[in-house]
């Protein structure tokens, strides 16, 4: 099993909230980047490109992209549409894991029902120009965080996070442990327990009141 196979398997069993719980320094993209398609869940290595009101670089990036890549477009947060229906169809055909554009996206009549995860900051009909070739790859800014080609990008209904590949497997494994603990809490709550029966609330508050270090944690 390859590294990407491993992290995709682990990512499929967790959500972004659990990842954030175990990695407080994880990069979280701005919630202004919203899912525009019918499929919010994605996981894959970033293929990055930087554009400003010109989408030729996005065309270049899609041509270069490999199956499973997440196309991450640094559009500077501007409103010009840097991609649309044809880009989503081309990405589907190549087996990309998704498209994230910190800029505009258009053609919602198709994109809204598209099975490819598509995120953007804006929706608008006016496309950018196609006269500025770019270099695909490297480090860009998307959703307010740096993203380097090869970083692991994970998205779901709660948002988009970016993981360093060197840390991803350990973070996802820890997130799976959090998910398992939460499942135990859910079972207890469904059986009539209170949060205080499942979390060290009283002890945590008492320690903090005494000025002692403490951490709120599960007890089940």
From TrEMBL:
It is an enzyme of class 4 (lyase). Keywords: Magnesium, Metal-binding. One of its GO terms (molecular function) is oxaloacetate decarboxylase activity. Its EC number is 4.1.1.112, 4.1.3.17. The keyword Magnesium applies. Homotrimer. This is Putative 4-hydroxy-4-methyl-2-oxoglutarate aldolase. It comes from Virgisporangium aurantiacum.
């Amino acid at each position: 099993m390859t590294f990407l196979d491993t992290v995709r398997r682990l990512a499929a069993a967790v959500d972004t909230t659990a990842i954030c719980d175990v990695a407080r320094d994880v990069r979280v993209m701005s919630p202004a980047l919203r899912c525009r398609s019918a499929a919010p869940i994605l996981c894959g290595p970033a293929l990055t490109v930087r554009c400003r009101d010109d989408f030729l670089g996005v065309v270049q990036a899609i041509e270069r992209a490999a199956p499973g890549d997440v196309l991450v477009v640094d559009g500077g947060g501007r409103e010009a549409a840097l991609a649309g229906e044809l880009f989503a169809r081309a990405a589907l055909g190549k087996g990309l894991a998704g498209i994230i554009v910190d800029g505009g996206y258009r053609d919602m009549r198709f994109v809204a029902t598209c099975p490819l995860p598509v995120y953007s900051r804006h929706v608008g009909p006016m496309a950018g120009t196609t006269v500025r070739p770019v270099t695909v790859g490297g480090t860009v800014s998307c959703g307010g965080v740096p993203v380097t080609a090869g970083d692991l990008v994970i998205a779901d209904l709660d948002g988009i996070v970016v993981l360093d590949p060197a840390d991803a497997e350990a973070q996802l494994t820890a997130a799976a442990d959090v998910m398992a603990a939460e499942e135990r809490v859910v079972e207890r709550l469904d059986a009539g327990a209170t949060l205080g029966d499942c979390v060290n609330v009283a002890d945590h508050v008492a320690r903090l009141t005494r000025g002692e270090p403490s951490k709120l944690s599960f007890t089940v």
